[in-house]
């Protein structure tokens, strides 16, 4: 990511998307891209030894949400099912995220909680009157995550079966991004932030369905000294094993993340503490980088 003209921010287009970007600039400018699927992602934070850390995961293959990202995914129809609810109501959430569509907002909040549970085992729910659950470890919970991932039942079914209430107050609005027009599988992604509930701990899905790696990352180090984190080595090994390139391997966040993920990481890196990050006021206007040509190369431009 680099500076731009005036109030612009410039993001490099990943090499995997370079051909599509050039084709769109030749034939697609002025046209509407494919309709984006709505989704949600959650940025968990905690205080680390050297700064604020965030929970990140790696999804194999090129993803519209990035191969290095936060727990999340697209909304499903099952996210509309009724469930016991504690905390800000869907209408209050719509007001928080500057949305006029209460139903879509509710779906996004539920999708965030559902995907967090599937991909990390963190459950933003608990028994009525006793707050959020402090322990969701064990084989039975892992089986529930597997079945939820396989869409054998819904998040609402899971909570009802265990007499649990969803705690929407665990989430805070962070940002809202829509994938640029030239990407084939576009997403309209609402980002949330959260802290891991007391007593819980993130655990990868047993079969790692769609998730190859999950860990806490020092956000500041990822920008300033990435090789002090486990992320570069993870992708170096992947690149070599898959023979993705004949060039000497180098670490580049632009190749692994989306502009939305990069900006969220940057916000975490700049935070003085996890509490400060969670309490900060956010710009919740929709951001959608546009495709442009700079110095002969396609880039993504965000007007700020």
Helical run tally: 10
Shape: globular
Task: Give the helix proportion (percent range).
Answer: 25-40%
Order of helices and strands: EEHEEEEEHHEHHEEEEHHHHHEEE
- How confident is the prediction overall: mean pLDDT? 88
Largest sheet: 8 strands, mixed
Report low-confidence residues grouped into runs of 5 or more.
none
Please state the CA-atom Rg, rounded to the nearest Å. 19 Å
Cα(first) to Cα(last) distance is: 14 Å
- Bin the strand percentage: 15-25%
Number of strands: 15
Class of secondary structure makeup = alpha+beta
Which helices and strands appear, and what pairs or packs with what?
Elements (H helix, E strand, L loop, with lengths): L1 E2 L4 E5 L5 H10 L9 E11 L4 E7 L9 E2 L2 E3 L10 E2 L3 H7 L5 H19 L4 E2 L12 H11 L5 H7 L3 E3 L4 E7 L8 E8 L18 E6 H6 L6 H12 L10 H4 L2 H12 L3 H6 L6 E2 L2 E5 L2 E7 L1
Parallel strand pairs: 3-11, 7-9, 10-13
Antiparallel strand pairs: 1-2, 2-15, 3-4, 3-6, 4-5, 4-12, 8-9, 10-11, 14-15
What does this protein look like?
- The chain contains 10 helices and 15 strands.
- Strands 3, 4, 5, 6, 10, 11, 12 and 13 form an 8-stranded mixed sheet that branches.
- The longest helix is centred in the middle third of the chain and has 19 residues, at 102-120.
- It has helices spanning 18-27, 90-96, 102-120, 139-149, 155-161, 219-224, 231-242, 253-256, 259-270, 274-279, and strands at 2-3, 8-12, 37-47, 52-58, 68-69, 72-74, 85-86, 125-126, 165-167, 172-178, 187-194, 213-218, 286-287, 290-294, 297-303.
- The chain is globular, with a radius of gyration of 19 Å.
